[in-house]
Amino acid sequence: MRTPLGNIALAAILVVLVTVGLQGLASPQSTGNSRVIKLGAAISNTGNLAAEGKLTTDGYDFAVEWINAHGGVKVVGQTYTFAPIKYYDDESKPAQSAALMEKLVTEDHIGLILGPYSSDNTIAAAAVSTKYGAVLMADEGVAKSIWTSGNKNVVGPVVYDYQYMYPVVDALIAGKTGIKSAVMMHADDSFSVGVAEGAVAYLKEKGINVLGDFQYPAATTDVSSVLAQIKELHADALLSSGHVQDAILITRQAKQNAIGFKAMAFTVAPPTPDYVKALGKDAEDVIGPAPWVPQENFSDPYWGSTQKFVSAFKAKYGFVPDYHVGNAVIGVELFAQAIAKADSLDPTKVGAAFLNVTYQSIGGPVHFNNNWHEDNQHGAAIQLQGGVPVPVWPAQYIKRLRYPMPSWARR
Amino acid sequence: MSLPASSQPSRGLAPSASTSRFRVTGAAALRSGGPILFAIVAIAIPMLVSGYALREATAILMFMTLALSWNLVGGLCGYPSFGNVAFFGIGAYVTAGLVANLHWPFFPAAGVAALSALGFAAVIGPVVLRLHGHYFAIATLGTAQALGQIVIMVPWVGGPNGIILRVPYATSGQYFYYLMAGALGGALLITYAILRGSWGYACRMIRQDEIAAAASGVNTTFYKTACWSLSAFVAALVGGVYALWITFVNPPSVFDPLISLTMVVLALVGGAGTLWGPVLGAFLVENIDQYLWARLLTAHTLFLGLVIVVIVLFLPRGIWPYLTGQQGLAWRSLFEGTKRLRV
Amino acid sequence: MEFWLQIVVNGLLLGGVYALSALAFSLEWGILNIVNLAHGSFIMLGAYVTWMLFTSPLHLDPFASVPIDFAALAGLGFVMQRFLLNRVMRGEFFLTLLLTFGIDQVLVNVGILLWTADPRAVAPSYSSVSLAVGALTIPYTRLAVLIVALAITVVLARFMHHSRLGRAINATGMDLDAANLMGVRLPFVFALTMGLGCGLAGIAGALYSLNFPFSPQIGGDLTLRAFVVTCLGGLGNMYGPLLGGLALGMVESVATVVAGSGAVDATAFVILVLILALRPRGLSGRAAA
Q1: CA-to-CA distance for A241 and A260, rounded, in angstroms?
Q2: pTM for this one?
Q3: Are B6 and C102 in contact (CB < 8 Å)?
């Protein structure tokens, strides 16, 4: 049947296709209030880093809301407030991270961006942000290569990956534990590998015998054979760098296979609520590094003090903030202070305001060198006691360290 | 013994007997006018848009080329490879390694990368292509996974940290768009050349019934391996451009099994075995994906899954055969299919 | 010496997990010729059902939740087959792959929306207790998985060969048209088989939750493992997944020690490709199509 209907349908489909295709071109311009600071953020909502992503967004949103409600940011004598943060999901993929960086800058016209969660995504994002002169607050991505690859305006308020475990090692030594040997396990993603390399070198430097360093696939579901090998080594301490899911797995399988240590330390997991919820009493006495702990009490320009921040956050969200939240909040308040110091929203000027300068934060004073990276942070270490992360490092907390861990049977 | 159609080579491109509302005019217009319009639009885009939109357009071109590369072995020959990301990864890594570590200029590096992928495919082809259907799928999937794991252990290419490329020359968005367009053009030319000639004929025979093809004297091993190697070549070219474009390659991103799956989905949705099917499939699905990603922060993969389900139910041969009149909307024939099952 | 014995034991226990998760996959592939890319996500759903029941005021023990898991997921699988997959059964096999891929994406995203991506674990009081045999430690929950895998294999084999429904299912796997002519109601049997498969995935999920931390995204890995195990073990034989699973578990356990944990995946796949190239039937299967 020769119907024009078919051709019309064909044309309609083509129109739909082209319209959909042109969506990328039509950018919704939001004019809005002119005394507004626009921040963008890359987070991981899907992909395998999604759990940490939620904590980070809680921190960002809380900080923005609070600063807005408590005086905003003064720029050229006017009071500015933060617009709601524009979030994009980087799907834990570097290519997506780069794409969203470009979208934030070229379509949403946002030049102040809070960093992706992982180092890999930050590397890809930094290449794009440097190209456009945007300022990237890399508060969750810590690989040294981000700052040695010619990137500009990438602000690093947190220690490098290889320094991550230093507080744990410092605590174990300063606590006069008599620890002589340790064994390292790490996942095979770049963050975990960086942490492990730094930790092993530091352990050796401090005179602790490193009996082995085992790498496992990041998404592994079974480490019992690796643990069986580790059991043979009879090390005093187990240090592991990975993420929450593998920390839960390792702790559990260590108990199941009756492999005991005098001390166990994991990156990322111990301060998070999920780790304790999943393991209950088995998580007791586990140690972990934390760039920030909620027990500190520094003076802070927005909350008054760290403790006031902690109570305010807990009142709103119902849980004590962990270091992911802390880092996120610090990121926002650093931006606020730099904008005020630069007295401008221009990313070039804001970026310049992060060179050779010190800002106060809920984590204490942060000093930036001339490569936009901090050089006075050391991080802290916590130990799970009674299901609660208790600081055991810096030195003023060392007396709280409990060593050795009781054997599995006596928990 | 009659197994369900699914485990035998597919039935090929014979037009179905169901009703088709499109007549020759619509289809012919599409066939000749479509590609010209496409070429004009493709070349003009960088002059019209920039920044994010240009980046997204480049990404769409990348997926079109990847879908075409899969099409060479999966659509034309009917061998469902689920590991083509291995070639993409080889291309990205070899290019990145040569450019970053040995300071080669880009084009020779990409060329060598594409040829190494082709060589790799030619070597493992005769082994892997002896398998069929699902077994071939898992073997290719496994090869890609294994390669991704092995790369983590090679320090020269950065191990788990990957390689960061510092690009000395212009890094404008237009440059990468045209690079990617060049790769797409190459893929289209290769596919067109194969489809037109006796090569394409041989491949179609292999897809429909490999035993009959072999019995008719077709050197199935040669044609299969050749398509497989060309598929590797094209995917590796894309990988090379990707490496330069994103300036960062690491094992999880360039050996991601989801890329293999995406290639398959795009080609099938668009119309496997055709020249323009994968292009159309990539255009449609990636546009929808990007649109949803920017607007639905928490549910975009959900809708993508639904879109795929809907397309499979309504347009099982892909969109291109439907547009060019070879296939009607499948809902009616699906009902008929179910009714037949009830006999 | 005890070290290697422990490695072997670890391998068998790991194999039990693999076998259990591959049983359903093998059933769906062997009978329906459907490679269910959403299989891992069904296991994930089973794990979450158990978790929800465990953390609810009922505090239902994971083993007690097994029948509920089975029923819930069998129902879901039945519906999925009846209304979605049945439509593409006569089409190219690519279509079922695509369809199950789409369904998988939907399930994962629904999981993230409902339960967030946080890792969860089900940890009743006995979850970290082990049986000590000399210097060997055998965790009870892992042993339970192996025993359940064995039990289900045996029960399934009996069901398929000795019951009317089982033989109908078997018949459709052997020859669709002949089964049709013999009066088997194909759409119903398809749906039932898929329901059975998904129900088994639910059981696997319940036991998985006891042993491993999980999140909505574990599906992909699980499906891949099931795929490998099924190829290793061969299709068409109810004991295939068990053999394949134990074999894979042993290979991985030994490879971890010999080649380092990072090489485990690579080793497993190289072995798989070799086996497929040399013996395409797998360890115990019928001839490949």
Answers
A1: 18
A2: 0.86
A3: no
